[in-house]
Design brief:
The chain is an alpha/beta fold. The chain has two domains: 88 residues, 3-Layer(aba) Sandwich (Rossmann fold); 132 residues, NAD(P)-binding Rossmann-like Domain (Rossmann fold, 3-Layer(aba) Sandwich), CATH 3.40.50. The protein contains nine helices and eleven strands. The strands form three sheets. A six-stranded parallel β-sheet has the order 1-11-8-7-5-6. Strands 3-2-4 form a three-stranded parallel β-sheet, sandwiched between helices. Strands 9-10 form a two-stranded antiparallel ribbon. Strand 9 and strand 10 form a beta hairpin. The longest helix has 22 residues.
């Protein structure tokens, strides 16, 4: 058995095509969705990532706003820039690219973002709203990567209702937030949260209909631990230097042999990563649509 590939690149293309239509409709009403990024310092990986986000945003008709500060920027300077974007009516959503330089208070900066403009969907106010909302429609930004995981499954006609999802990893970006979405009644999955400190992790993995591997530990999920036919989404990232080439190589949390056991497999790279960017843009477009409705 070879797993069905959950192709995040193809699914993200479909999402962006849908967003382009929604953006055109907003422009007809005089509103151009504006997405902004705040980059502090000149980390090459962060610059590449931010540049990719802006290129994709412009391609579907969004207004792209790039703001940069030097690596030695003060807390006050960064917070002043956050305040400026909060007050800018042409900016409907933005992110602060992480990691920030060590001398800055990351939590204080992220919490200063206007929750309505939280493109990542990880502001404490928005996570709190998600905790409190099991049934009603959600009118606040949602965590991008968890939403991308779910959207990737749904767009491949995978029904999550009643499924047992085992999440590996307890980070805020995915592990701590994805259960809030999966257990909403419209999805109706059952979630077990595990992590690197879980005793006998394979026991839980073998019970799973769906595995979301996001611990950031190379090949943590083994083929022997996966129930035949399960859906496995590889979200974790480990970077190691290739001793032969000297270049950094990316590994996921799922060993390659899982492809011979799983029914569905989202690879890394090429799986959830492109979905995260697409759902980031979705959050901003939805924020712009809410301004028109208001």
């Amino acid at each position: 058995m070879t797993a069905v590939r959950l192709d995040g690149r193809e699914a993200s293309k479909a999402i962006k095509a849908e967003l382009a239509e929604r953006i055109a409709a907003l422009k007809a009403k005089g509103v151009t969705p504006g997405i902004a990024t705040v980059l502090v310092g000149a980390d090459p990986a962060s610059q590449l990532y931010v540049g990719m986000k802006h290129k994709q945003s412009v391609a579907i008709g969004m207004n792209s706003i790039q703001r940069e500060l030097p690596a030695d920027a003060t807390q006050e300077q960064v917070e002043a820039l956050i305040d400026e974007l909060n007050a800018d009516p042409t900016c409907h959503g933005f992110i602060v690219q992480l990691p920030l330089p060590g001398h800055l208070d990351t939590d204080a900066i992220l919490e200063r973002i206007d929750p309505a403009k939280d493109a990542d969907g990880l502001h404490p106010t928005n996570l709190g709203k998600l905790v409190l909302n099991v049934n009603a429609p959600i009118t606040s930004p949602l965590p991008c990567t968890p939403r991308g995981v779910i959207e990737l499954l749904l767009r491949n006609d995978y029904d999550l209702k009643g499924k047992h999802v085992v999440v590996v990893g307890r980070g805020v970006t995915i592990g701590r937030s994805i259960g809030l979405l999966l257990t909403r009644r419209e999805i109706n999955a059952t979630v077990t949260l595990t992590h690197t400190g879980t005793v006998d992790l394979p026991k839980y993995l073998k019970q799973a209909d769906v595995i979301v591997a996001s611990a950031g530990v190379k090949h943590l999920v083994k083929a022997a631990d996966v129930k035949p036919g399960a859906a496995v989404l590889d979200v974790g990232v480990t970077r190691e230097t290739d001793p032969e080439t000297g270049k950094a190589k990316v590994y996921g949390d799922v060993e390659p042999a899982v492809a011979d056991v799983a029914g569905y497999l989202s690879p890394n790279p090429g799986g959830v990563g492109p979905m995260t960017v697409a759902l980031l843009m979705t959050n901003v477009v939805e924020a712009a649509e809410r301004t028109v409705q208001d």
